[in-house]
Amino acid sequence: MRIVRWVTSFSGFMALYSIKDLERITGVKAHTIRIWEKRYRIVEPQRTDSNIRLYCDNDVKKLMNVSILLRHGYKISRLAGLDQQELSKKIMEVSMVSNGCESQIENMVVSMIEMDESRFEKILNQAIIKEGFENTVFKILYPFFERIGVLWQTGSINPAHEHFITNLVKQKIYVAIDNISATPGPDAKKFLLFLPEWEQHDLGLLVYDYLIKSSGHKVIYLGQNVPEEDIYAVSDFLKPDYLFIGFSNSVQKEKLESYIGRLSERYPTIKILITGQQTSGVTCNLPENVALVRSAIHFSTELLPAI
After folding, report:
1. Can you tell me the distance from the alpha carbon of 121 to that of 291, in angstroms, rounded to the nearest whole number?
2. What are phi and psi of 186, to 5 degrees?
3. Per residue in 91-101, pLDDT tens?
4. Which of 74, 82, 111, 252 has the fewest CB atoms within 10 Å around its CB?
5. Which domains, ranges and CATH numbers included, belong to the chain?
């Protein structure tokens, strides 16, 4: 369900949500929200002329914080008297001692919505120290970005939220890549990583960059929006063993198959690895030298060890 409407405030535009939006975003049932409103005044919605409840961004943040703390043993009667700052402080206390990935993911979501860089950094750093970078990617960051996808579909976050959090995560991946101590050996394979010219989001590709380098192989990373003729020029010059391509943006199936087909025909001796949401519809028509990477975990546990 999309945001019900947007209203103009002194600071710009403010989103308003229906009670069903809140239920989907926070996981708190609509009838429970109504009880909390009446008994504890947890949130105080606006109402339309037809008496439909409408909630603001602050209501969403407060309910998310309350729902997290309830799962950690706090009583609603105790939380009802706390303001947003006090709730946020308790959330940080919980996140510092919690062993559950779900709790960390929830706290990261709240940090994103509030655009609290310091809080997000603390939670992510704690996870990396405890789990290691690779496990943090698989156990926390991937589910976290799936949660962001749900919030995006419901209209609960805007592009600014996505850019804010994506850049923070990218910084962590860059640091992790820089800290890789493995050096390519004489049998190391050479991977050329890139996104086609219609693709802009390279966060996932950076994860594969890390996984390949940490396994002792060589990576030539071209990144996003790479024209096809540039791929040919680099491949002809460097002669990589693998081309690794990500496809996430919506594109016609015929265009995708034609693109993969041209690369396969031009480089029949090079193994071409493809990944991303848009590859699911072309798995039955792949040339012999093209293989699908279902996920980073699939690549790390099955494909990469066999290379």
Report:
1. 36
2. -65, -25
3. 767 655 555 67
4. 252
5. 190-306 (3.40.50.280)
